[in-house]
Amino acid sequence: MQNALIVEDLPEIRDWLVQVAQAAFPGVAVTRAARVDEALARVTERGFDLALIDLGLPDGSGIDVVGALRQRQPTAVPVVVTIYDDDDHLFPALQAGAFGYLLKEQPQDALVAQLLRMTQGEPPLSPPIARRVLSYFAGEAQRRQSLVRQVEEQVRLTDRETEVLQRVAKGYTLPEIATQFGLSRHTIADHIKQVYRKLNVSSRAEAALEAARRGLVNP
Ligand code: CA
After folding, report:
1. For the chain, how big is the Rg over CA atoms in Å?
2. Are residues 163 and 112 in the same domain?
3. For the chain, does the N or the C end have fewer beta carbons within 10 angstroms?
4. Handedness of CA 163, 168, 170, 172 (dihedral sign)
5. Which of 71, 3, 83 has its CA nearest to residue 40?
6. How far apart are CA 183 and CA 131, in angstroms?
7. Are residues 23 and 80 both part of a single domain?
8. Cα–ligand 1 centroid distance for 2 (angstroms)
9. CA 57 to ligand 1 center in whole angstroms
10. Ligand 1 centre from 85 Cα, in Å?
């Protein structure tokens, strides 16, 4: 790391971030910016290896700086350093191309250690952020599973519907099926409607094929 960009509006925090960068990468040349427009100007002027970028800036969001850096300097590593630990800040920043996400609440030593991990190719993530990313993806997997279950539930035939389908497939008419079950035609018509909807078919022939496919009748 030879050239670092530090984007932070509060002077004392900016100085602190300079110290963090220099502790992690001794001899690194530091360029400072306090606003989004200033940072974007610096990005067009010179190349950077690393950028530490605050999100809450007076004229906009540091996410724009992350995006611009990724676009104009693909080899530069943008790392967000912020007080915000919520999904609404974290995920847009990662989406914009942030390679790391550090929380300002951490002691300087911890930040330095996390930046140093980059030399091993590891993204610098504060522990609560790493946990949030993992739990987000675990939650996604769970949501997807329950959606699949819901869909399965919606298309699963009840026992009565299965019996009705078998008889439809065998060629019995609606009045015949009603008599066989001792139910009204209206009720059997409802069952057939449900079966057609669940199987996504619109004719007796299609229903019969589907019944055969499910092994409910001999083809
Ligand atoms: Ca700020």
Report:
1. 31
2. no
3. C
4. positive
5. 71
6. 57
7. yes
8. 25
9. 5
10. 14
Domain residues for the domain of 100 are 3-128
Cα(23) to ligand 1 centroid in Å equals 22
Ligand 1 centroid to Cα of residue 131, in Å, is 24
CATH, residue 205: 1.10.10.10
pLDDT at res. 26: 95
SS3 79: strand
Instruction: Please tell me the total count of domains within the chain.
Output: 2
**Exposed, middle or buried, 8 (CB in 10 Å: 0-12/13-18/19+)?**
buried
Q: Which residues in the chain land under pLDDT 70? A: 219
Q: What is the pLDDT of residue 219?
A: 58
Look up residue 1 and give its two tokens. 């790391």
191: buried, middle or exposed (CB in 10 Å: 19+, 13-18, 0-12)?
A: buried
**Number of residues in the chain:** 219
